[in-house]
């Protein structure tokens, strides 16, 4: 290989690496710009509120997914865990909204811990374990709450549709979760461990890292975050609907994570990129709806984004 | 034995295979003759696996010629090689455990009866075929029910079809019981009788002398010797493998080791007693005093790496105790060993060492992170301090602490890993092949560093396939064979000659195989694929 | 080629219980039974509620062809002497399926018929097995709520060999009437769309901009309810313009999300046609959240669940076209007539009721 072609390849790698890291922001900027110019009523506080509220559950689920993917795993059960948490909110509402929400979060964490235990201790592939949980979780949710149940609790209703300082509660909660995950990733030992486990599990083991504990914690956290999203959706819908809550959200979340620059192979995690990725997915859907394009377009547009992201993120030529 | 044995069935001339950064085969010649068993030997990374893969079409070749029956040949895929009559049996048996034995045996060439599989005939023929290999089982049972040895025989029977001209066996005995080894040798004898050329790869010298006719010794991608095995002394064979008397011994100049160290008295830095792990270690004991460099000698598979891993808590032990400065290591696992002050620089830098996506900084701080944290929060200031200290001390060449470690050269990656372990301020440092695959300059620096560390009072265990490095670097060398200590050299007797002699003596007086525990042979070290 | 269902929810995996998670969760669920009744949602009504709202045949819509025992083959029977098998296609997790199964079970009990049931949980292969099982358990009459219209040939042949009469409900099976099956009893989804359009025209006085919340894509219910609606609007109310059509996937969440977007891009929308109640209720939540007053946007939906009808009473929904799932009485009546050797129509289309502000309050107890 000539020196010139080597240089060309290096340049290509650089460009791709830049795209992988920052492409998502370019994407968000482009879609916002498009809407500002072509979508009537896009630049309004009320519209921003709607987009933020609808993006909030995707953001929260994607955060947990980003952590799991950073360890080289995957969690397909997030949608089912949302359904479980929705079911438990409804079941425990008799004890008051706070108790029911706490129980729902606990159930999400337990479901995540079960995933984590099987992945970390039994060493079963994450995709298999969480696929089983995806089926079992939603099944169980449907056994517990067979059909949509309205939630008439004023506190939950306020949480779902109310605002403080002009920002909806659910958006506050999503922001809080972003801050929490950012803190975990940037400042804590746990944050360092999870990328090391994803980057080279064997090296992590030999370096004395508690690999299993780290994996267990990551899946538990992912479950708990999915449960937060389940509570958000339930409050917003004013109904517990285990049948359809979180359906296919795992795809949006995985896409958001990958588009945001976290490689599916693990070993690194980009929190801000993930948030931007989730916002991108939301705006994509909103734009197509606002312009009344056929629903099949939405799926095609999402597919195009995924393919673009995966292409950019694909393993750079092994040296 | 006639020296001229006619046309070889397979002839290779000047085979070259390059991988990025390495020349795995640097012009290898090989002649395989019908009805002869050809041993292929060499230390880890000498190029045995690569050679086999190039012969059988798994890898393409970058140079050289291949002739089959005197006609130019070359196989683009393993399937092509197979059609031409080259059968390969790999270490890991690649069959389908859930299908029946007979189905596995006839997969893809089942006897047909009006388009359907003729099961009665298939079962009958399978039972007959396997009988020849000493396997008498119900061929309708799933393959997974069989022992590893029997499965290997099925793989062999499957590979050796009527058209096979050359049969290549890569470490065929590594998972076999002694009785099964015996059967295998009978089978090999029969193949020889049918005029088939057999390539036999093994590091068990006893077996080679029992079953092989010819031998080719590979070292660093060169065929350093080729000829009949009979008459080749065991000592000389080992010397060839280890490369002691090659004319280019002094190739990169002498090592940079300074010589003997001032070994402190008092409690040993490390005491390991009776380390025992099934199939791997059989009661290895050794101790290292502060300031001492102890080398581990022995051939590939003798248990050197396993000993280091056992000490570092990375190998589950059935028996054995490890103590640091007289205090027993409490708990199990690598974390416990690290807490006790033991650091292991693993052999496989890429797969066990660096975390490729992370920066130099994160890689250095990886193991020490808990010590640089409080209440689970990392102190970036302390991390920065440790990282800059070690980058300076080890002269790590990087654009900065935030550069990705995968962008560094092999030598600098190795220094990053050394920094990772030194950041723990260990009492004992275990170095498994610390200079393999790094350039001359980095090699010298690493060797100098080992000296410095010993002078600082660390106990160092050094594993190296480079005899020169071992002899000059170590104050004392413990020689292993089949997972047991078979000799020790110290003081003035640490010389290359003495070491080769000790290794050979260990080989020459083989420990009687313990038949009860399934061939106490050392577990195979997997060849490092580059 | 799959004629998809009576709307209901999108496909989802079959429920299955995984050990550990389930154990923990069940424990919590058991303790949860202590909840007080008032807190349980008010729309618990579900199964079997709304008695007396039997289906009525639409004589005009029904086909002319008939079937008799002689043509179909087999011997006459008295319903009380035979065993009847009912194969349900989807889990009873939505009001429609709950009410449908309940109606069959109740009617069998009423008539003293020996009924055996099965549920295929949205798995077509399972439903084929179910029907074969029902036959092997001695069912001599089959009532099937098919998941798919196609793929029934093997089972139909098996039934035909034993002269077992088959009645399909809510969705048709593709085959020859009076040969492969006796009769199909169901709704006319196109007609439901037309009637929804009538309600919309009434609400808007024939003038305004309307949005459509479509059901799941690729579903024949979606297509037919859209077709009828468009056809009637074009014919009767040129002043009404359909400006927006997006899918809410037949779910409340979908209806809510799409309506939230809609309100931003079309703030002056006058009417919303939701192709099922769930999406309509989601639209109500969205309008409420966007600060709209009840009645500001006229919503028309299809289904007739209790919660939707309650919203008419509250003023948020203008009208609901019913899609009646209570197939029990008609199905058994058809079976009885057939067994007695009488003529039975091969296509029985039912009249669906409609709810609007004039009758919602009094009809509310009858909604399902």
TrEMBL record, chain B:
Keyword field contains Cell cycle: no
CDD domains named in the record: ABC_Carb_Monos_I, ABC_Carb_Monos_II
Domain of life, per lineage: Bacteria
Region of interest (Disordered), ranges: 510-530
Protein name (record): Sugar ABC transporter ATP-binding protein
Listed GO MF terms: ATP binding
InterPro entries (alphabetical): AAA+_ATPase, ABC_carbohydrate_import_ATPase, ABC_transporter-like_ATP-bd, ABC_transporter-like_CS, P-loop_NTPase
Organism: Nocardiopsis coralli
Residue ranges annotated for the ABC transporter domain, each copy included: 10-245, 258-507
Source taxonomy: Bacteria, Bacillati, Actinomycetota, Actinomycetes, Streptosporangiales
UniProt keyword terms in alphabetical order: ATP-binding, Nucleotide-binding, Repeat, Transport
Matches recorded under Pfam families: ABC_tran (PF00005)
Spans through the membrane: none
Keyword Ion transport: no
From TrEMBL, chain C:
Segments of this protein annotated with the region Disordered: 35-56
Signal peptide location: 1-34
Gene3D superfamilies named in the record: 3.40.50.2300
InterPro entries: Peripla_BP_I, SBP_2_dom
Location relative to the cell: Cell envelope
Primary location: other
Family: Belongs to the bacterial solute-binding protein 2 family.
PANTHER family: D-ALLOSE-BINDING PERIPLASMIC PROTEIN-RELATED, GALACTOFURANOSE-BINDING PROTEIN YTFQ
Protein name listed in UniProt: ABC transporter substrate-binding protein
Source species of the chain: Nocardiopsis coralli
């Amino acid at each position: 290989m000539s020196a010139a072609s080597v240089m060309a390849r290096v340049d290509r790698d650089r460009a791709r690496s830049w795209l992988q890291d920052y492409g998502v922001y370019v994407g968000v900027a482009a879609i916002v710009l498009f809407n500002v110019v072509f979508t009537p009523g896009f630049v309004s506080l009320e519209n921003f509120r709607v987009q933020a509220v609808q993006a909030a559950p995707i953001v929260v689920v994607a955060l947990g997914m980003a952590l799991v993917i950073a360890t080289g795993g995957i969690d397909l059960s997030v949608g089912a865990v949302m359904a479980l948490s929705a079911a438990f909110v409804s079941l425990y509402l008799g004890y008051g909204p706070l108790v029911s929400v706490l129980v729902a979060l606990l159930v999400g964490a337990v479901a995540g811990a079960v995933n984590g235990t099987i992945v970390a201790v039994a060493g079963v592939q994450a995709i298999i374990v969480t696929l089983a949980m995806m089926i079992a979780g939603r099944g169980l949710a449907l056994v517990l709450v067979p059909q949509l149940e309205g939630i008439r609790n004023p506190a939950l209703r306020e949480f779902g549709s109310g605002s403080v300082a002009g920002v909806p509660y659910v958006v506050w909660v999503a922001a809080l979760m972003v801050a929490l995950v950012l803190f975990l990733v940037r400042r804590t030992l746990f944050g360092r461990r999870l990328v090391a486990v994803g980057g080279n599990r064997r090296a992590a083991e030999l370096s004395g890292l508690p690999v299993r504990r780290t994996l267990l914690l990551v899946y538990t956290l992912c479950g708990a975050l999915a449960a937060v999203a389940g509570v958000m959706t339930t409050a917003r819908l004013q109904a517990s609907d285990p049948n359809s809550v979180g359906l296919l959200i795992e795809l949006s979340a995985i896409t958001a994570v990958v588009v945001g620059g976290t490689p599916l192979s693990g070993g690194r995690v980009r929190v801000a990129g993930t948030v931007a990725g989730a916002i991108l997915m939301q705006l994509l859907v909103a734009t197509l709806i606002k312009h009344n394009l056929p629903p099949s377009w939405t799926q095609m547009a999402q597919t195009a984004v995924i393919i673009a992201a995966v292409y950019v993120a694909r393993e750079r030529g092994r040296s | 034995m006639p020296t001229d044995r006619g046309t070889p069935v397979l002839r290779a001339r000047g085979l070259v295979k390059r991988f990025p950064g390495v020349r795995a085969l640097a012009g290898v010649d090989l002649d395989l003759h019908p009805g002869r068993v050809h041993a292929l030997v060499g230390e880890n990374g000498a190029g045995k696996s690569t050679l086999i893969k190039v012969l059988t079409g798994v890898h393409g070749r970058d140079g050289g010629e291949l002739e089959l029956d005197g006609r130019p040949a070359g196989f683009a895929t393993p399937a092509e090689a197979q059609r031409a009559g080259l059968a390969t049996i790999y270490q890991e048996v690649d069959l389908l455990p859930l299908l029946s034995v007979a189905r596995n045996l006839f997969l893809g060439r089942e006897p047909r009866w009006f388009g359907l599989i003729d099961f009665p005939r298939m079962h009958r023929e399978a039972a007959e075929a396997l009988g020849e290999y000493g396997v008498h089982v119900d061929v309708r049972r799933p393959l997974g029910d069989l022992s590893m040895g029997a499965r290997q025989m099925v793989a062999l029977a499957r590979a050796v079809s009527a058209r096979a001209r050359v049969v290549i066996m890569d470490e065929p005995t590594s998972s076999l019981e002694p009785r099964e080894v015996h059967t295998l040798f009978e089978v090999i004898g029969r193949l020889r009788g049918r005029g088939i050329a057999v390539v036999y790869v093994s590091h068990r010298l006893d077996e080679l002398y029992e079953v092989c006719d010819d031998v080719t010794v590979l070292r660093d991608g060169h065929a350093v010797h080729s000829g009949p095995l009979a008459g080749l002394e065991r000592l000389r064979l080992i010397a060839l493998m280890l490369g002691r008397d090659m004319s280019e011994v002094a190739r990169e100049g002498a090592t940079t080791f300074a010589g003997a160290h001032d070994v402190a008295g008092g409690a040993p830095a490390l005491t390991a007693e009776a380390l025992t792990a099934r199939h791997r270690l059989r009661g290895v004991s050794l101790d290292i005093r502060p300031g001492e460099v102890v080398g581990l000698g022995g051939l590939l598979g003798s248990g050197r790496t396993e000993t280091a891993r056992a000490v570092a808590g990375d190998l589950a032990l059935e028996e054995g105790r490890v103590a640091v400065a007289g205090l027993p290591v409490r708990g199990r696992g690598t974390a416990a060993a690290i807490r006790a002050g033991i650091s292991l620089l693993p052999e496989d830098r890429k797969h066990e060492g660096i975390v490729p996506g992370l920066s130099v900084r994160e890689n250095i701080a990886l193991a020490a992170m808990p010590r640089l944290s409080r209440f689970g929060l990392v102190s970036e200031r302390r991390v920065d301090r440790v990282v800059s200290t070690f980058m300076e001390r080890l002269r790590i060449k990087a654009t900065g602490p935030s550069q990705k470690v995968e962008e560094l050269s092999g030598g600098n990656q190795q220094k990053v890993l050394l920094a990772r372990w030194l950041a723990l301020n260990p009492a004992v440092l275990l170095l498994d092949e610390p200079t393999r695959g790094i350039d001359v300059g980095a090699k010298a620096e690493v060797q100098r560093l080992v000296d410095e560390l010993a002078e600082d009072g660390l106990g160092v265990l050094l594993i190296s396939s480079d005899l020169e490095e071992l002899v000059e670097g170590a104050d004392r060398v413990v020689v292993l064979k089949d997972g047991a200590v078979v000799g020790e050299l110290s003081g003035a007797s640490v010389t290359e000659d003495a070491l080769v002699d000790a290794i050979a003596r260990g080989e020459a007086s083989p420990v009687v195989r313990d038949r009860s525990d399934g061939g106490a042979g050392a577990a195979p070290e997997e060849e490092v694929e580059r | 080629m799959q004629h998809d269902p009576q709307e209901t929810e999108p496909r989802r995996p079959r429920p299955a219980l995984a050990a550990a998670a389930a154990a923990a969760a069940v424990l919590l669920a058991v303790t949860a039974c202590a909840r007080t009744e008032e807190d349980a949602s008010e729309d618990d009504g579900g199964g079997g509620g709304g008695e007396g709202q039997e289906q009525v045949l639409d004589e005009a819509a029904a086909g002319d062809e008939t079937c008799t025992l002689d043509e179909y083959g087999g011997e006459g029977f008295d319903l009380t002497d035979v065993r009847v098998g009912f194969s349900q296609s989807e889990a009873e997790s939505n009001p429609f399926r709950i009410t449908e199964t309940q109606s069959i079970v109740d009617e069998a009990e009423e008539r003293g018929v020996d009924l055996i049931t099965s549920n295929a949980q949205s798995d077509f292969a399972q439903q084929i097995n179910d029907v074969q099982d029902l036959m092997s358990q001695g069912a001599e009459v089959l009532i099937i709520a098919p998941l798919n219209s196609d793929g029934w040939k093997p089972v139909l042949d098996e039934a035909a060999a034993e002269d077992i009469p088959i009645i399909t409900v809510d969705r048709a099976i593709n085959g020859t009437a009076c040969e492969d099956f006796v009769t199909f009893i169901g709704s006319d989804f196109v007609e439901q769309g037309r009637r929804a359009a009538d309600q919309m025209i009434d609400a808007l006085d024939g003038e305004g901009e309307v949005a459509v919340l479509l059901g799941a894509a690729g579903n024949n219910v979606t297509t037919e309810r859209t077709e009828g609606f468009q056809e009637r609007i074009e014919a009767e109310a040129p002043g009404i313009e359909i400006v927006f059509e997006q899918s809410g996937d037949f779910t409340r969440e979908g209806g809510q999300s799409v309506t939230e977007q809609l309100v931003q891009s079309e703030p002056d929308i006058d009417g919303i046609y939701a192709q099922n109640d769930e999406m309509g209720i989601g639209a109500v939540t969205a309008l409420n959240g966007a600060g709209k007053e009840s009645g500001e946007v006229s919503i028309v939906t299809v289904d007739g669940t209790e919660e939707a009808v309650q919203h008419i009473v509250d003023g948020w929904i203008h009208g609901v076209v019913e899609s009646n799932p209570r197939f029990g009485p008609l199905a058994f009546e058809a079976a009885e007539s057939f067994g007695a050797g009488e003529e039975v129509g091969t296509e029985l289309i039912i009249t669906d009721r409609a709810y609007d502000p004039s009758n919602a309050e009094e009809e509310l107890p009858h909604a399902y």
